[in-house]
Every structure is written in C-alpha cells, then in structure tokens.
Queue: 3 jobs
Job 1
Amino acid sequence: MNNISYHTDQKNMIFRYFERNNDRQISASEIKEELAVANQKIGLATIYRHLDSLEKQGVIRKFADESGKKSCWQYAGGNENCSGHYHLKCEKCGKIIHLDCGFVSDIDEHILTEHQFTMDRAKTVFYGTCAACSQYI
C-alpha cells in the first residue's frame, strides 16, 4: 500500500509542478531535475508513466519540441477545451499562450474553402515572440 501512496505522491508532485508552470512546455528531464532538487529520487521511466497517466486524464497535453525529437508537455487542467484552439509559443522564453480568438475561425474557414485543408487545432502551434520578450529585441 505504501508503494501505491508513494507513486501517488510522485504523481501529485508532478501535477503541482505543471500547475506552477502552466504557461510553458516542460520536458521529462526537467521534471526529474526539479524532483531531485526536492530530494525526490524518481527514474525517467516512472516519470513517463505518470505523464502518460496525466495526459490520459486530460490534465496535460503532449507536444513535440521545435526539433521534433523530444516530447514536452503543458498543463491543460484549467482549460477543458484546450484542443479547441490554437497555441502561440514564444521562441525566446518558451511561454505558451492559448489563442482564444474569434478571428481564428475565419482562418480555419479560409484554409478549408480556398485550400481544401482542415486544420487540427489541437496540434497546431504558432511560433514567434511574446510581448514581454519583444521589449528586449
């Protein structure tokens, strides 16, 4: 029973880390480093199992990083319709912005009508620079 509780505690720590960092994507290795700072020894395989479970629960979403070689996850727990909109990602700081904008429907319609192509909002991320980082350009 302690083993089950232990894994629940680990999963809760991972969940809380996502809550605190809800505006950016997080890698499994970053979670491992964060837990090590908190004196929690946890293997990457266990972290991946917890990430898979949280993803299936709809608490986090999985993305590929810019290289397409590494997976990252983002907190989606506070946004039930996270797959219903596009995302903006700052290339400078990594911040993720949920693009809840009516104008996007016009883009979807244009792409469908003019290019016979249906966009997948859940998998589409626009890259650029956020307002905060734009101040330093």
Note: DSSP finds five helices and five strands in the chain.
Job 2
Amino acid sequence: MRDATIGYYDSHAEAFVSSTVGADMGSLLMAFLELVPDGGRVLDWGCGSGRDSLAMMRAGYDVVAVDLSDAMADATEALTGLTVRREAFADLDDENAFDGIWASASLLHAPSGELPGILVRGMRALKRNGVLYVSFKYGDFEGQRSGRWFNDMDEVSLRSVIEGVDGLEVERVWTSSDVRPGRSDEMWLNALLRRRQVRG
C-alpha cells in the first residue's frame, strides 16, 4: 500500500506539483497558525510540493519538512531551500519538539489500522498544548484509488480514532471545499487537535 502510493508520487511528481503548488490554503493555514506561537517550530508532515512549508517560512515560522517520496522532497527543497527529512509517518520519533504539526492531505494515505499509532507519534512530537492539523477527503471509502491508498474520514470516524489516542483532544472539526481549480465539489474534513496539558 505504502510503496504503491510513494511510487505514484515519485512518478507523477511534476504533474502533482503543478496542480497543487498554487492552491490557496490561506484560510486553513490561518486557522492553524492562529494557535501556534509567533515564530514557533512547525513540522510540515507530508510536505508534498513545499507550498505550505514556504508559506509558513514566509510568515516567520521555523519549519521542518518531512516527506517519504524522494520526488516530493526534492520539489520542496527546490522551492524552499530546506533540507527535507525523508521518512515515513511511523518513523517520526521527535519528542516535545514542535509547537505545531501541519499534516495537510497526507495522513489520508495511512491505512486506518495504522492511524492511531501514527497519531501517537505526532502527539509525542508536540510540545505541551501543541496543535496538530489533519485533513482527509470526506467520506467512508478506504482502499486503492487513482494509484494511491486513501483512507477517507467523516466526523464520526475521525472522533473514534482520536478517542483512542490518549493525550490528544479535538479542538475543532469542520468541512471545506477543495481549493484546486475545477474541484470545488470535492469535500474535505479538517481537524485541529491539541496535545493535552498535564495537570499537576
């Protein structure tokens, strides 16, 4: 599943970057960055074209970018000048390192059975009260689609996953339309999750 998805991005990188690098993510990024301290350290977890890494850098944030696809990592490096970490979601081992994690249209490629463990890693990588943004195609489909593995989510399925991750709580869940030209009929599920503060 993972190998096929990464293979897709490695072989379709130019077309994918062309179709996504100009997408206007402003309102979604704003909802996330409003909860991250100015100049904070942010992980772009599945950075793709590098579009959002660049936007966050320009806004003054200290950005760390990660992607398992070599072609996507190369695209981000070319766009941003960052050195991209090339690793799988399940290999994230940072602890208390980030004020925010931005996982836009990336964790949707993780099989549902692996998602809780991946979110635990994300939670541990956050500082106390840190914020994790995730987005999924809206629905209940899981499987191969267009050469990649997709795990679609709705409000019920997402909350069910989050409830199984001790240390994460839901800050906000909402839907939005796809911002790419000609795809406004496609819906996305967005969520802001927070690492709970330990109460003394």
Note: The longest strand covers residues 126-137.
Job 3
Amino acid sequence: MSENKAAYLVAVNTPLELKSAPYPEPEDDQVIVKNHAVALNPVDCAQQKLGTYFPWLKFPAILGSDVSGQVVALGSGITKFKIGDRVAGSTMGSFQEYVPVKEYSCAKIPDNISYEKAATLPLCLSVAVKALFHPEYLALDLPAPGTESNGKVILIWGGSTSVGCSIVQLAKAAGFEVIATASPRNFDYLKKLGASQVFDYNSTSIKQELLAAVQGKTLVQLSL
C-alpha cells in the first residue's frame, strides 16, 4: 500500500504541518486521485486564520477543496474513469497526496491543460454553475449541445475574475448574450470567451453605457 502525506492545520493561525496520513480506500462511488497540483483558495486562508469560526473545522484539519492528478484506484461502482486518467475535481481535504473524490465531482483533464491550470477550475466552475443553474439561484436551463440563442442577455459585473470567466462561458453555452464589465486590458480576452460587449467598470458613465447596451433586451440578472 502506498504511503500518504497531508498538510495538516493543527491549530488556529499556525503554519501547515506535513505529516503522515491514512491512505484512503474508495467507497463504491469514489475514485482515489494522486494529486499533482492543488489550488489555494481564499476560504483556506480564512480557515487557517479563523479556525473554528467555521463550525465544520476540527483540529487537526486537512484543508483544500480542489484536486488535480491521476486516478490510482476505483470504487466498485465507477463507470466514467479508469486507472491512469488525468482528472480534476472538488472535495474537502484536498491538501494531501492521495484523495478520495466522488465520481460526479470529477472530470477528465484535456491533454492540452496542465495539472496546475486544471487545479484552478473546480471551485470556480462549481460556484459559476450554482449561481446560474441551481434552483435556489437563477435556475437557468442547463447548456446542451446545439443550444441556440434564446434572445436574452445576462450582465456579468467583474467578468474577468476566475468565477466570472466561468460564468461568461457557461452563460454563452446556455444561449444567452453575455455583456460583462472588466478593466480595459481584459476586454479582448472576455470577447474571446464569448462576451458580446465589455465595458470598463471604472468609467464614470458606466451606468448609462450598460443601460444603453441592454435597451430593448430581456435582462435576466446582474451577476456580481
């Protein structure tokens, strides 16, 4: 059996400590991922500084929520993946070498995307998906192959953030015209992602510009 190591937070506002950790066995609906890269998210820093302000946090804790690596073991019910697949996924306690991840929380990494880049995707994508499609939020129709324009527009304030970039692409795929705000250096990038128009959120006339852009159109939501 392989050895496992994890970066533990043993007390509030202390450095992480690298220690041995139990090697995980997959449940029926889980894969075991050997991490090649993980992402550090703002919530990880907040948990380190504030500790049990987060009620689910118990010391010693393994932080992290994004994984990126290779599948090394399969639960008995796994059908989407095989040993050796490059995957990224979302699960709690990702700051360890070997991590169990639910099959539905994993996706294969395209060959042209590095492990490091793939590690940045799970949290951003999950936040974007929840904001757009979850019944408690906008509850928009999910994108599907061949989805055509629905004639509606969605406005993304701060479209060049990590979550914003995900929302731009998902909303475009779901049939919406996407209008975004960003700093001018990101205008071309957001248009490549699918935004039809991009405006400078520091402009003194931003309100008037946005009102003119959506004039006569069905505006679904202002996403912040």
Note: Residues 4-119 form a domain with the Quinone Oxidoreductase; Chain A, domain 1 fold (CATH 3.90.180.10).
